[in-house]
From TrEMBL:
CDD domains assigned: Rieske_RO_Alpha_N (cd03469)
Domain Rieske: 18-129
Cofactor: Fe cation
GO terms (BP aspect): cholesterol metabolic process
Keywords, sorted A to Z: 2Fe-2S, Iron, Iron-sulfur, Metal-binding, Monooxygenase, Oxidoreductase
SUPFAM superfamilies listed in its UniProt record: Bet v1-like, ISP domain
Domain of life according to the entry: Bacteria
InterPro entries from the UniProt entry: Cholesterol_7-desaturase, KshA-like_C, Rieske_2Fe-2S, Rieske_2Fe-2S_sf
Stretches the record annotates as Disordered: 350-369
MF (Gene Ontology): 2 iron, 2 sulfur cluster binding; metal ion binding; monooxygenase activity
Protein name: 3-ketosteroid 9alpha-monooxygenase subunit A
Amino acid sequence: MATTKDYGLGEYTYPRGWFMVAESAKVVDKPQAVHFFGQEFALYRGKSGRVVLLDAYCPHMGTHLARNTTSYVAQDGAIEDDCIRCPYHAWRFGPDGKCNEIPYSSGPIPPSAKIKTWKVQEYMGAVFVWHDPEGGEPDYVLPVVPEWTDPAWVCGSYDDLGVVNVHPQEAIDNITDAAHFGPVHGSRTKFFENEFRGHRVVQRMGGGHRTLIAEGGPMLVTEATYHGPSLLLTRMSGLYDSWIVIAHTPVDDGSIYVWHNLIVKSPTGSAVATDEDRLHARGYQDMALAAFAQDFEVWKHKRPNVQGLYVQGDGAFQKQRKWYSQFYNPRTKTAALLPQFEGIQGARGLDAAPQEMRDTGSLSRLEVA
Ligand code: FES
Ligand SMILES: [Fe+2]
């Protein structure tokens, strides 16, 4: 298992950015333990509906707030209003992390009786945390996908793919991997390009796809964008108009947790998606998942690619790895680093791209490599 240091990404072990930590529906008024960025957290939904994520250990005597089922605090319900009680001596902490009650003590509550809480946002049916080694405020927002709230579109539930023992760099590499589409997905790639813009990298691709489209079917056109180091949103026009949502979050240094979801435009063309639409959409999500599993299987069993042996036609891996390193360095360094890496890389076959993509995307103003 290779680490961030092995890849030479920067000063920090874990990157800065918004990261998915759970599917919203699974966060209820019962503390659950989650482990990301090499550390333990407690996650719960307060009675008001507010989601709270905090460091897992109680400052009193170090008890884990979310790994207990036998204490009567846990059995009777550790969540009160938006507060959480420790299962050991029942100290209660507010959603700001401050202890606000010690049931057996009439003395003052020490100011250090406090747990670090994390900035979270519910976004497209998931809970995201802002992780920042510098302790700063978010420097980008999660993009609005209007289709998520459009009744004509079916929003899937997250496929929970669990932990994979690869460094996130190996997953990110996929965005610049021009040569894997044929061998892995059976795609005769007609056009391909990458664009680097600040915290985003875009991949535009069109071609056949044996897993998602039958032989001789329409061209599958995708525009996949990493919004920061973790969230990959792909607009896909193939069998149905859809968005693929993939999120991965570092678990320890050299492993990631992965989720997958699909948002599909009503396959029957209804203004409000029907049960039949949901059935088709789930079938399509399973097909998309099968396509993703083709990448996943490779990641699961590969050795780390710390230093690749790249040839012409591979894609802009080195540029992408520099782009990705921005999240592992202080913002002061990022500012100096980024402008050199903006622009289009590895564009080819652009005549085959659909006109609307050439009009709205960057395809019409490209240099062909
Ligand atoms: S260890 Fe948490 S209240 Fe004592
Ligand atoms: Fe792939």
